[in-house]
Amino acid sequence: MTIRRLTPKDLSAYRAIWAEGLMRVPTAFLFGAEEVRAIPNKDIEKALQTHLTFGAFDEASRIQGFISARRGGPRRMRHMADIGPLYVRDTAQGQGLGRALVEAMLQELARNGVLQAELCVDVENTRAQALYKSMGFHVFGRRPRSVLVDGGPRDDFLMIRALDETDLTRDA
């Protein structure tokens, strides 16, 4: 597998895997499928240029997974980044691809001066929680009704990891 930053040239592959993820695991995404379909290509191309999105590609150059992150906007929040979503195709799961994508993202964020990475994960997604915990993230809160999926409320755990060795668990 090859992991690299996605560019506007990857638009079709990115849209396809994003749509697949929305169909298979709608609770892992903030946007719904209809909302994603309504986003113009030019807006997604701009996001690929301004936000970090990495893709994992197999030997045949087919995308098998992706991860995104957005750095805090105001100067006072530029030390942190929000990670997500992370999605790996079923056929590529169990091969360490999710871990490799998260690690690549964390390394890039640290290289760019980000001090902490944060994410939200559905409280029922124990597999993703285990991955994140094994990579040094810890839960620092729970957001009730974080999203409504098909009209039903879903809670998220809020997770955080320091990228500079600071102990963020001291007050937890």
TrEMBL record:
Q: Does the keyword Iron-sulfur apply?
A: no
Task: Cite a single GO MF annotation.
Answer: acyltransferase activity, transferring groups other than amino-acyl groups
What keywords appear on the UniProt entry? Answer: Acyltransferase, Transferase
Where is each N-acetyltransferase domain found?
A: 1-164
Does Acyltransferase count among this protein's keywords?
yes
Name of the protein in its database record = L-amino acid N-acyltransferase YncA
Originating organism = Marivita hallyeonensis
